[in-house]
């Protein structure tokens, strides 16, 4: 893990109203850049409201934890005009509208009450993004920090924002071994853990029934070799936790799409994508209601590139699911050609319904020094943004 990531993880927990450095749900997405040599294991539990974080270079993932305020960068400038081929700025006039015109359902970003309070960031969400994924507000430690004691303030705020601004919501995430309260980790009885999972998912999904398009039901449950991760859920329940979680989610909202979300699925030949693909086939054949697979899409450095993303999605499209989505996209240094390849891959795979970036601008990224997003620290569109607009405008 990068030294900057360690500092981020150790920073005091900010209030919900402060902008978060969004750590992708992939607390395990390999973070690899030139500075990754400063890697250290920060998988210490982040039981406070956290930001999702892509997986780190080692097998030990870093927790998604709340970041410190990024207001200094956020206040520096309002978003500039879009490139010449893009529609004029305004609600629904950016990448989301162009992507939908190509037959896709949305172009989205991670967001929460804190980040949306940054005016230039919110302006870009309004103009270019049609979907929002909660950074932290729907994670277990934020919603149910103590058993059967639920707090929906942050998640309610995001869902209300989405309704007011005509945005789709992707629920993230119901079951993840990070940002998991200690009381859950200490459960050793099968019947008790089953009941706890069912209760948590029933309360959370049921509260937003009909308001959330898709849920990341389970998140980062696989090792790099394609086996199931060693965590409280597998230790106590084996692989049956997957059935328990998906059946509870389906019962709570039969209309929502239910996903497995995972990092490092961007290569057709990868052992993780092969292992996940085989498990999903088996689980669907057994009647577990899995609708989709989310490819997190943390790319660059020691992470995968976009070169094989289309092939990876083609493999997963044959697993029995009905949808695929790119759920946490960021690319180190935001090379225009890599962003274009990601969009081309989704466009080429009919089952790919949308793309979500993990954050809006580099000022609010969980990797601010690696500049991985489409908008810079001043909230201005980068060359990668212009290249995507040009692709979608053809």
Automatic annotation (TrEMBL):
Pfam families per record: Glyco_hydro_10
Presence of the UniProt keyword Lipid metabolism in the record: no
Coiled-coil parts of chain: none
EC assignment: 3.2.1.8
Keyword annotations: Carbohydrate metabolism, Glycosidase, Hydrolase, Polysaccharide degradation
InterPro entries hit by this protein: GH, GH10, GH10_dom
Biased composition (Low complexity): 55-87
Catalytic activity: Endohydrolysis of (1->4)-beta-D-xylosidic linkages in xylans
EC class name: hydrolase
Signal peptide: none
Chain spans, region Disordered: 55-91
Sequence ranges assigned to domain GH10 in this UniProt record: 110-391
Highest taxon listed in the record's lineage: Eukaryota
Record has Endoplasmic reticulum as a keyword: no
Family as reported in the entry's similarity comment: Belongs to the glycosyl hydrolase 10 (cellulase F) family.
Protein name: Beta-xylanase
Organism (species): Apiospora saccharicola
């Amino acid at each position: 893990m990068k030294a900057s990531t360690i500092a981020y993880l150790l920073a005091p927990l900010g209030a919900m109203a402060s902008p978060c450095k969004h750590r992708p749900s992939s607390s395990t997405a390999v973070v690899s850049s030139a500075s990754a040599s400063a890697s250290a294991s920060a998988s210490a539990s982040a039981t406070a409201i956290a930001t999702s974080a892509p997986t780190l270079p080692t097998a030990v993932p870093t927790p998604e934890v709340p970041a410190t305020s990024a207001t200094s960068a956020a206040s520096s400038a309002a978003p500039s005009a879009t490139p010449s081929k893009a529609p004029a700025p305004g609600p629904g006039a950016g990448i989301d509208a162009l992507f939908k015109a190509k037959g896709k359902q949305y172009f989205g970003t991670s967001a929460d009450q804190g980040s949306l309070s940054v005016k230039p960031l919110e302006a870009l969400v309004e103009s270019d993004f049609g979907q929002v994924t909660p950074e932290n507000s729907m994670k277990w430690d934020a919603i149910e920090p103590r058993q059967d004691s639920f707090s929906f303030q942050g998640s309610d705020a995001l869902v209300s924002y989405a309704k007011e601004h005509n945005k789709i919501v992707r629920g993230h995430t119901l079951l993840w071994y990070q940002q998991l309260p200690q009381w859950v980790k200490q459960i050793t009885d099968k019947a008790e853990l089953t009941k706890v999972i069912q209760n948590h998912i029933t309360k959370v999904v049921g509260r937003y029934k009909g308001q959330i398009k898709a849920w990341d039901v389970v998140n980062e449950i696989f090792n790099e070799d394609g086996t199931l991760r060693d965590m409280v859920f597998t230790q106590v329940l084996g692989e049956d936790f997957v059935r328990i979680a998906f059946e509870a989610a389906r019962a709570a909202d039969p209309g929502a799409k239910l996903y497995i979300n995972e990092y490092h699925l961007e290569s057709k030949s990868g052992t993780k994508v092969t292992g996940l693909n085989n498990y999903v086939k088996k689980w669907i054949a057994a009647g577990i209601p899995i609708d989709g697979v989310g490819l997190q899409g943390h790319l660059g450095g020691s992470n995968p590139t976009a070169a094989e993303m289309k092939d990876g999605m083609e493999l997963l499209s044959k697993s029995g699911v009905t949808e695929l989505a790119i759920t946490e996209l960021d690319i180190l240094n935001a090379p225009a050609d890599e962003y274009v390849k990601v969009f081309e891959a989704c466009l080429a795979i009919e089952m790919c319904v949308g793309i979500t970036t993990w954050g809006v601008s580099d000022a609010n990224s969980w990797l601010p020094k690696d500049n991985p997003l489409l908008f810079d620290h001043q909230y201005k569109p980068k060359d990668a943004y212009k290249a995507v607009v040009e692709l979608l405008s053809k």
